[in-house]
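PT: before anyone asks, these are the final sequences, not the draft ones from last week. 339 residues across everything. Please model them as a single complex and drop the result in this thread when it's through.
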Amino acid sequence: MLRRHHDMGGLEAGPVDPFGPGAEHDYAPWEKKVDAILRLVSDKKRQIMTVDELRRGIEELGPGVYDELSYYERWIASVTNNLIEKGVIDIDELGRRMTAITEAWPAGGVTEAEPKVVPETDGQGA
Amino acid sequence: MAEDHTHDHPHDHSQFQPDLEDKPLTHYQAMTEAVGELLIEKGVISGDELRAMLELIDAKSPAAGAKMVARAWVDSAFKARMMDDVLAAAEELGIDAGGIPILAVENTPEVHNVIVCTLCSCYPRQLIGLPPDWYKARSYRSRTVCEPRKVLAEFGTVIPDDVEVRVHDSTADLRYMVIPQRPAGSEGLDEAALADLVTRDCMIGVTLAKAVG
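LR: through. Structure below.
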């Protein structure tokens, strides 16, 4: 059976280790902000994107990126890609803003010049 | 807009928390801040709405679910209504359970329930807050549906062989919460004390409610 990467129910995997490192963390402010942004752009007032579109965007990250990114990194990648697709924000203005924010950050950043959103080979189409 | 972003927009990037400013900003953190700023500047969302939503997210905790479970333990009519419609039962207690249906599944001496979301991370967050990382991790998502007793044992929860284990795979359109069994010796406790026995993990079904005393 062909299954997509996110569809992992029933597959073999390691122990859960609920008391080990990485089992829990207090969500960082930026992670909560991702959550808040998604909830606002998907609320009744705005209806810019749906939770299903969030998931579609996450699932289209592809196996490599999906496993490489943390949970809320996947979310903001999908939210951002959806907002670009829908013309709400522009990829160039996003890139400029990310650069400006990173340059203003006291400890600098690890951002790249171009926003890394969903890879083009995986990110197109529904 | 923002052709030349020179930081003349009305907020001050110099006001960083001292424990955060020492760390380099990651790519996706910068993306989050940029998207938030652009949405506000374009009038898609307001700063007040963003702040209010962040406060709402922080306000959600397992306390809401625990209150419902404690009421269900002392009031069988309420429990019946909760089994029928969690959102309406929550409203009775002044709890906003959101708009996505939640199904309550009750643990009994014969049946133990546990919830998972194999596809992503669906979770009754309105009633028990944001999910722990292990709930969203590959190991829990993959294995809970095929070897639940083994997974539960990793939480220190050993379900006797004569008790049936039911696994509920959540979706974007239907979430679950577990009503744990009321602990032995809790007969004399009031609702607030009962609610203290109800943990997040027992409402996921990976543990039992706390023992009395």
